[in-house]
Amino acid sequence: MNLTDRVVVITGGAGGIGAALGRRFAAEGAAAVVLADLAADAARGAAEAIGPVATGVGLDVTDEAAVRALVDETERRHGRIDLFCANAGVATGGGLDAPDADWDRAWRVNVLGLLHSVRAVLPGMLRRGQGHLLLTCSAAGLLTAVGDAPYTATKHAAVGLAEWVAITHRDDGIRVSALCPQGVDTPMLADGLAERHLGARVIAASGAILTPDQVADAVVAGLAEERFLILPHPEVADYARRRAEDPDGWQAGLRKLVRRLRAADR
């Protein structure tokens, strides 16, 4: 996808990866960039920083009617949506004993939030015979977020949903990309490190931490090539390959890393 003159909607757009995508798409010549976020004021501030091409709005992606209303309003104002980035997500830092409320929120945001977005925007794209969906799924959707069971389970479901839509609607002119970064310098990672969540510490210990702008660079390149998997950390492809070829060895390596981190706490 060439981003010039495109109309783009980004959920989770108030900061981190979402705001970086908005800045980069505007720089690439997008006609309109809509930043939607539960933090409405922050979304409006991020849009103001981009300039007149951007608009910030409040949105709860777990509210399907609200997502449909956003899509309807954007299509009314701009005539179409060329690229929809379903980027909102939450982590928990919990295991099997995480409260049911945390499991429910992870499911509603990380999976149903994507589903609501796809359901709302896909009909218009199908009518036009073209459109691109970018679903932020995380490397956790291909591997495992050690220390965060709800995040792991829901991000695996997100990758599965993205792949299903890609297979089902590619011949209808719809392109789908699953964005799967690993460590990114965002409030989600910072909060996890501050709270000493094991998953955040594993990420910090195991690879490079990219800036949101570096992730945006990888997204622009991936969209241009219409890639399904967009991997800002190229090593994730090697990790996924090793995990598929030798799951026992892969798990043993992660257990060793976890033991080392836990030993450092003693």
UniProtKB/TrEMBL annotation:
<dbReference type="InterPro" id="IPR020904">
    <property type="entry name" value="Sc_DH/Rdtase_CS"/>
</dbReference>
<dbReference type="InterPro" id="IPR002347">
    <property type="entry name" value="SDR_fam"/>
</dbReference>
<keyword id="KW-0560">Oxidoreductase</keyword>
<dbReference type="InterPro" id="IPR057326">
    <property type="entry name" value="KR_dom"/>
</dbReference>
<dbReference type="GO" id="GO:0016491">
    <property type="term" value="F:oxidoreductase activity"/>
</dbReference>
<comment type="similarity">
    <text>Belongs to the short-chain dehydrogenases/reductases (SDR) family.</text>
</comment>
<feature type="domain" description="Ketoreductase">
    <location>
        <begin position="6"/>
        <end position="182"/>
    </location>
</feature>
<dbReference type="InterPro" id="IPR036291">
    <property type="entry name" value="NAD(P)-bd_dom_sf"/>
</dbReference>
<dbReference type="Pfam" id="PF00106">
    <property type="entry name" value="adh_short"/>
</dbReference>
<protein>
    <submittedName>
        <fullName>SDR family oxidoreductase</fullName>
        <ecNumber>1.-.-.-</ecNumber>
    </submittedName>
</protein>
